[in-house]
Automatic annotation (TrEMBL):
It comes from the Bacteria. Signal peptide: none annotated. It comes from Billgrantia ethanolica. Coiled coil: none annotated. This is DNA-3-methyladenine glycosylase I. Transmembrane segments: none annotated. InterPro entries: Adenine_glyco, DNA-3mA_glycosylase, DNA_glycosylase.
Amino acid sequence: MSHYCDLAPGHPWHGPYHEKEYGFPVSDDTALFERLVLEINQAGLSWLTVLKKREAFRHAFDNFDIAKVAAYGSGERERLLGDAGIIRNRLKVEAAIHNAGVILALRDAHGSFAAWLDHHHPLTKAEWVKLFRRTFRFTGPEIVGEFLMSTGYLPGAHHDECPVHRRILACGPAWYTRQQPGLG
């Protein structure tokens, strides 16, 4: 079985994501929301398709401004469904808008989306999936697992020998700091 670390280096789209983003801790709510929307949109498609459409997603979703997306009405929904630059799936568009509203509520209750994630960490992947299914829309096991791996809440983004893995460990992702005495 090939691993992302074997496939991504040197690739024009996967390479930069693998080297600079995948698995690194994310604490910014806008970046977390973007990653959640992208992972939801990847369902049934290749990650390459999503990476190629990433800039179009940023433009279409107002740079993932959570409050703006949460306030989208029928006009914005129709605009998104007509935008050939993104993945035009009604369930995915509705999930992004709904989930933005959920994140606003989580901010009110916990201070930020990141603080909500930190509040629940550590959980097993199965426990995370249950929590996300109760909280968000369109968040099955693959989406939740990839979202949490990609943002540093679950291990497994890189194999141990990957040079990026060592850089990630130096950043103290949540899954690692909770395992190390005196960290986290």
